TrEMBL record:
It holds the Pfam family Lactamase_B. The keyword Hydrolase applies. GO terms for molecular function: hydrolase activity. InterPro entries: Competence_DNA_uptake, Metallo-B-lactamas, RibonucZ/Hydroxyglut_hydro. Transmembrane segments: none annotated. This is MBL fold metallo-hydrolase. It comes from the Bacteria. It catalyses: 3',5'-cyclic CMP + H2O = CMP + H(+); 3',5'-cyclic UMP + H2O = UMP + H(+). Counteracts the endogenous Pycsar antiviral defense system. Phosphodiesterase that enables metal-dependent hydrolysis of host cyclic nucleotide Pycsar defense signals such as cCMP and cUMP. Keywords: Hydrolase.
């Protein structure tokens, strides 16, 4: 069975494609979709570019780890361009935000809210099933298993309460709450563990915080590849976590422009000081690859131009 994990260079943002092929049967799962515009450089590869170039006509599952624009913006161009079996998410917008046309792009958080509402409306119009995840869940796909790791329920409840408190007519007066929601989205993101033959292969970390991993330490120990949390944020990684995971590879999804000062220089220093892991960036100064590909079967990493 052919099984790969592709980390796309979407600039500052994240999008990962997991593909399984066995004879005439195939399965495609996309985790996040980068921003709405990934740039026109030759190194960039949006999810829409990817499905076109690899002649993918159907995505079985589209996973949204949280609704920051650098993770969901590219979904809108996928909708209608390729059929989607279902969308998996764990945070919905309250009726008050879904009942109006937000169309606010004057701050990053308002842009994220507006994009999320638009894609949810469009998915429903297209009758794409939306599955709200409420607990840890595993997709068993032969030798490969994909486990959705959920955030702290108390933090998730606080986020939902914050979203419910928003008044579409008074958003300009609720900047403090919007700022809190912005930060809380990272704290309540989903992560994804990829196993093969019951061994942990890859950990897709989205933007989760350091305390996310406590309930999952036994499951993730010894994982071969870890995606750096929050684009190489030093606050999202620790020497203790690195010792437990002992990854062979660490993939950093970031651009080469230092957006939001990420990845942190201290992150790189910690990795080199505490591990022998190979550190690979979706984009860095001088790189030419568009995709970082892991073969799930042999655990090898390749750079694809």
């Amino acid at each position: 069975m052919g099984a790969t994990i592709d980390f796309l260079n979407v600039g500052f943002g994240e999008s990962t494609v997991i593909r399984l092929e066995h004879g005439d049967e195939s399965f495609c799962l996309v985790v996040d979709a980068g921003d709405s515009f990934v740039g026109d450089g030759a190194r960039r590869c949006s999810p829409s570019d990817y499905v076109r170039e690899y002649a993918i006509s159907h995505i079985d599952v589209l996973v949204l780890t949280h609704f920051h624009r650098d993770h969901i913006g590219g979904v809108l161009s996928l909708l209608g361009g390729v059929s989607i079996g279902e969308i998996r998410l764990h945070v919905e917008l309250p009726p008050a935000l879904m009942s109006v046309e937000l169309n606010r792009y004057d701050t990053p958080m308002l842009a994220s809210l507006s994009m999320y509402a638009e894609l949810l409306h469009k998915a429903k119009e297209m009758c794409i099933p939306i599955c709200k995840m409420t607990r840890v869940n595993t997709l068993e796909l032969g030798e490969v298993a994909l486990t959705f790791l959920m955030p702290d329920p108390a933090k998730l409840m606080q986020l939902e309460q914050g979203l419910t408190s928003l008044d579409p007519a008074r958003l300009d007066e609720q900047q403090d709450m919007l700022g809190w929601i912005d930060r809380q989205l990272n704290e309540t993101a989903m992560a994804l563990l990829v196993r093969s033959n019951d061994e942990p292969v890859a950990l897709l970390t989205s933007d989760v915080g350091l305390d996310f991993w406590k309930p999952y330490e036994a499951e993730i120990t010894g994982v071969c590849l870890m995606q750096a949390p929050h684009h190489g944020d030093r606050r999202s990684i620790s020497e203790e976590l690195l010792d437990k995971l002992a990854p062979r590879y660490i993939v950093v999804s970031a651009d080469d422009e230092g957006t939001y000062q990420l990845p942190h220089l201290e992150f790189d220093q910690l990795i080199h000081r505490c591990t022998d892991a190979k550190l690979v960036y979706t984009e860095a100064i001088g790189t030419t690859h568009r995709i970082i590909r892991m073969d799930i079967s042999n655990r090898r990493l390749n750079l694809i131009d």
